[in-house]
Design brief:
By secondary structure, the protein is an alpha/beta fold. The longest helix is centred in the first third of the chain and has 32 residues, at 189-220.
Length: 663
């Protein structure tokens, strides 16, 4: 009898860390669990989620039965958006000042040391100018950097100068160096340079996650391969991703899309993944995710990283509720810890809320708290101003009222800066709290949510709120969350944003009429809802949009399921260029080579692309990979055969299952 083996998928989100255990032979989820994400020490949340999931298996689970652990994460995405990362030195080889300006590095990261070094190649892959090794060594010696990013002109046609520079940097500093050609084969040197810089800034962050998961595996006695989900939904060995962390941008929503497809068995749908911090939306058509071929856009920067085409908004169960002009309710985009969650962990929160209610003068800071991130440790460091240091010294691991700490506008600005740097977290009223008051959610016991709602109503209405008005307010919060969700689903279906279009708003708000006209807008394909809070909101979303709403089994941990069930894939593109005189150049990661026949050049290019793709997926952790090749050609107008070839792009994609098993 064959022993059963299991795959474990883990997703470290902004609020929760999810784990799902999948039986490999039965192609089924057998257990799942959630644990609060502990940003101070991620291993605490990871260990808690895996332990809780394994404990649900009635027959128990031996560490030897686990053949793979795979992780998806929002860590890289959040770091790019928030501007976090290591100090990096940028080395631009063969760039002039105009090219350096087009990278946007100086604007994105003021003060980052940038060195322009003579060297680089031309479009044929020929050396345009020798690499100035002495200038490179002198520049590196002056750079106060924890990592380096290296980009050379036309390096995708010949990567020799990047590779030599990387070797020099490694020998001189012992620090990691990102080569732009390791991340993309596209020609746009300025964008390659920016992508390399973003990657270098993230190495320490993703390495921290990998170390945390490995600590959890060691604590649980699990010895097997560890893989990370990339932004296109495919997997790679953790040790490979550690040096290419930019590829994990949008890892979380990519895993959710893979998991949603695996769980529901549909080939065409809109996925909407609602978590605590964000709602992520993607599209699956013909069983394939829609991919942003032009590169993932994150934090306002267009990278050259292949990733799913995803729309992300700051809307989740833990979005901060604000009261605007004329009592308008705002949901997000900032995340706060729900008051009811804080009260379940720290019983004194209820007494603080009662004290705020007893303070009859009210105020916008009532019902709001500050504390260190869950699982905080000395590993959380960042540069702080004197004012920030003063406030940080007042913040502990248990909640304190913000109004007692941020007593001035300057202090409130400093507190907001500390939050952006990840050194503190704040708590307040959220859609999750409103759902608790309405009886739609019961994650956390206690009356704290209702107390916080009473404070919100008092601030908005300028008088104490009775039970009816409190429930009415919570119903408004719930309905506004549904409206925003419906709007972003419609925008995903249309493929464009509307910016408050009255027709869309009439549908999303549930009114269903505009003037004297009944109106309806319905996606032509189903919506698959995944993520912890979706049951609270998405049945109503389905009613307002009149669409098929699918809640697959284990919808609340679809991201973790996707992490465990993905494939390993890698694509390599090799170009062939004819000069019109009978000479054909093959241009790829191996450099340039010349042929006297177009047919010979095409054969050589395909062989190179196939071999490189297979080797790449093997190094990423795949087994039994298959290769798919596509060729795009353009010929001279009077060409009779491939000897009239002007240009060709040969793309080979190798796809395989992860290599599993204890090791």
């Amino acid at each position: 009898m064959t022993a059963r083996t299991y795959l474990i998928g883990v997703d470290t989100g902004g609020t929760y860390t999810d784990a799902a255990v999948i039986e490999a032979q039965g192609h089924r989820v057998v257990a799942s669990a959630k644990s609060i994400t502990t940003k101070g020490d991620l291993s605490i949340g990871v260990t808690g989620a895996i332990t809780a999931a394994v404990a649900k298996l009635p027959e128990g689970l031996r560490p030897a039965d686990i053949s793979l652990v795979s992780v998806s994460t929002t860590l890289a995405t959040n770091a790019v958006v928030e501007g976090h990362g290591s100090a990096v030195g940028a080395i631009l080889i063969g760039f002039d000042q105009a090219m350096a300006d087009r990278t946007g590095i100086a604007r994105a990261f003021p003060g980052m040391p940038i060195a322009m070094i003579p060297g680089g190649h031309d479009h044929n892959g020929e050396e345009a100018r020798p690499l100035d090794v002495e200038a490179l060594a002198a520049a590196v010696a002056k750079m106060p950097a924890d990592a380096f990013a290296i980009a050379a002109a036309f390096a995708v046609r010949n990567p020799e100068h990047e590779q030599r520079a990387g070797q020099i940097v490694a020998r001189a500093t012992g620090k990691p160096a990102t080569l732009s050609t390791e991340l993309t084969s596209a020609l746009d040197a300025p964008r390659r340079a920016l992508t390399a810089v973003l990657n270098a800034r993230l190495i320490s962050r993703v390495s921290m996650l990998i170390s945390a998961v490995r600590r959890s595996m060691a604590e649980l006695g699990i010895v097997c391969p560890l893989m990370i989900v990339k932004g296109d939904g495919t997997l790679a060995l953790a040790e490979r991703v550690a040096l290419r962390p930019i590829e994990t941008v949008l890892s979380g929503p990519a895993a959710s899309l893979v998991g949603a497809s695996w769980l529901c068995g549909r080939n065409d749908f809109i996925m909407s993944d609602m978590g605590g911090t964000t709602t992520d939306l993607g599209v699956l058509l013909g069983g394939r995710p829609r991919v942003a071929e032009q590169g993932a856009e994150v934090g306002g920067w267009r990278t050259m990283v292949r990733a799913i085409d995803v729309k992300t908004i700051g809307l989740g169960g833990d979005s901060e509720i604000a009261i605007g002009l004329n009592g308008a309710i705002g949901v997000g985009p900032q995340r706060v810890a729900p008051v009811s969650l804080l009260a379940s962990r720290y019983p004194e929160v209820a007494a603080m809320l009662e004290a705020d209610l007893a303070d009859t003068e009210g105020g916008s800071l009532h019902g709001k708290f500050v504390l260190k991130p869950f699982g905080a440790s000395d590993a959380l460091t960042a540069e702080v101003t004197p004012k920030e240091a003063e406030l940080l010294a007042m913040v502990g691991e248990r909640p304190k009222p913000i109004r007692r700490i941020a007593v001035s506008s300057a202090a409130q600005r400093a507190l907001a800066s500390l939050k952006r740097k990840g050194l503190v977290q704040t708590g307040g009223f959220t859609p999750s709290d409103a759902a608790h008051v309405l009886g739609l959610q019961n994650n956390w016991p206690g009356p704290a949510a209702e107390l916080a709602a009473r404070l919100m109503v008092r601030f908005r209405d300028m008088k104490p709120g009775d039970a009816e008005r409190v429930r009415g307010f919570c119903r408004e919060v719930w309905s506004e969350t549904v409206r925003l969700t419906s709007t972003v689903i419609l925008e995903t279906a249309f493929g464009k944003s509307f910016g408050g279009h009255e027709l869309v708003d009439a549908v999303s708000s549930g009114r269903g009429r505009l003037g004297l006209v009944k109106v309806a807008l319905t996606p032509s394909i189903p919506v698959v809802a995944v993520g912890g809070p979706v049951r609270v909101y998405y049945e109503e979303v389905g009613k307002r949009l009149g669409c098929e709403m699918i809640f697959p089994p284990f919808f609340d941990v679809a991201n973790a399921v996707g992490a465990a069930t993905g494939v390993v894939a890698q694509a390599v593109t090799v170009a062939v260029e004819g000069d019109g005189s009978g000479l054909f150049r093959v241009l790829g990661p191996n450099g340039a080579s010349a042929f006297a026949s177009g047919a010979q050049a095409l054969v050589a290019a395909e062989e190179q692309a196939r071999a490189l793709a297979l080797e790449a997926v093997r190094q990423l952790g795949a087994k039994d990979a298959q290769v798919q090749v596509s060729v795009r050609k353009s010929h001279l107008p009077d060409a009779a055969d491939d000897n009239g070839l002007l240009e060709a792009k040969i793309r080979a994609e190798a796809i395989g299952r992860p290599e599993t098993g204890s090791r």
